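To assess whether ligand presence alters the predicted conformation, the chain was also submitted together with heme C. Input:
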Amino acid sequence: MITNNNFTIKALCISLIIVIPITCSASANQIEAMGKQIAEHGSNAIPACAICHGAQGEGNLKAGYPKLASVGAQYLQEQMNLYASGQRTNTIMQQYAAALTTQQRMAVTTYYADLPARNLKPKDLGGVRVTQLLENGDPARGLPSCFSCHGDRGEGSGSNFPPIAGEPALYFIDQMNAWRTRARPVAEGDPMAIIAKTLNQAEIINLAHALE
Ligand code: HEC
Ligand code: HEC
């Protein structure tokens, strides 16, 4: 009996070693297809992401929907997980993120991260004061330069720093308020809550419009 069991376990392990790599490479393609499917057609009774975030993930400046194309995969996935757990609050996105499985959230965010970048503004930084904040910060108030993390033109940087250029002004202002009221959480070492509290309302509005 014992020998038989050992044999069965050994056989199972060997077959797993052979099967797992094949399963993994097959599922990379499946995940890509799953992401595109959700983005374009929706899933689990939720609508296509494209309805709001645009056919190419470009977002919608007027309606205030952020762009997703070419935004860091890790950042996007983290945001979906935060909506799903209710740590980042938004009526629409919490509901959608929670309706998707972890794998579906990963698939759809990977799909968007791989799309080409859209809306690489700003063309005009909107006056000396705003340009200074973006490029140099305000050392007297301990404000770091926005571009030092978000890319030279605010286009985003690496997989953790999202773009701030070419995003809806409405969305920008909402996020600053969300950090002020703690509706949006911050990870350890993330300066955004302090930055949002240090900037005054006029600066927030001017930055939002200059970056859109
Ligand atoms: C009905 C409109 C609507 C649909 C459909 C929609 N979203 Fe959103 N999405 C929003 C809004 C509004 C926000 C801004 C929420 C906030 O202020 O936190 C947002 C924010 C996001 C963010 C955060 C972006 C950032 O820069 O932090 C991600 C990621 C996201 N959506 C992914 C998706 C995915 C994936 C789908 C499809 C499964 C989807 N959304 C479907 C309206 C929508
Ligand atoms: C030290 C790095 C750093 C600096 C400097 C910085 N940010 Fe950020 N910013 C981040 C990180 C990290 C995130 C992602 C936050 C998260 O995960 O919640 C972020 C997110 C944002 C977002 C939300 C983008 C989205 O898609 O939801 C906005 C808007 C923003 N920052 C604006 C600014 C502005 C304006 C300044 C300058 C006054 C600035 N940031 C300076 C690190 C930085």
